[in-house]
């Protein structure tokens, strides 16, 4: 059984849709299970479970019978703590393979707090007996749509000036995640995920 933590997020929901398309039975964990059930409907091979990542017992209950985990929680000051809770619960319940959504600059000395959090989680995961597959995508293309009104006027607001950035569609990330979950030969590696080329903000605008 594949269990998805972060099933309402951009990548988690895209993976959930992909597994539904492939008719792969899976379990989606959410703090708001009723909302998730309403979003995906009832005629799917998805088991929906309510759990809070801050509650270890709820997580253990959610992982009963699971063999694989996809972990993609929202960025927050507590991300490392909560993802560590998830990993510990998965290990306790006998999960064998974890696919974690990480970041390309996940390093202890990164100037970006989120990247340092991802590094701490990766290090914790490496200390378990579970096989770890790390997905390190660059910027999500979908986030550009938040600036759609400004882009329509030829303006793209950001802090990168003319520095290029490589954007990737979250659906492509989800496709890679599905492959690593369904093809054992791909497990246990680190994958840096990018689009076909990098663009500067002036080019995108």
UniProtKB/TrEMBL annotation:
Domain NmrA-like: 2-189
Database matches in SUPFAM superfamilies: NAD(P)-binding Rossmann-fold domains
Coiled-coil regions listed in the entry: none
Listed name of the protein: NmrA family NAD(P)-binding protein
Native species: Streptomyces triculaminicus
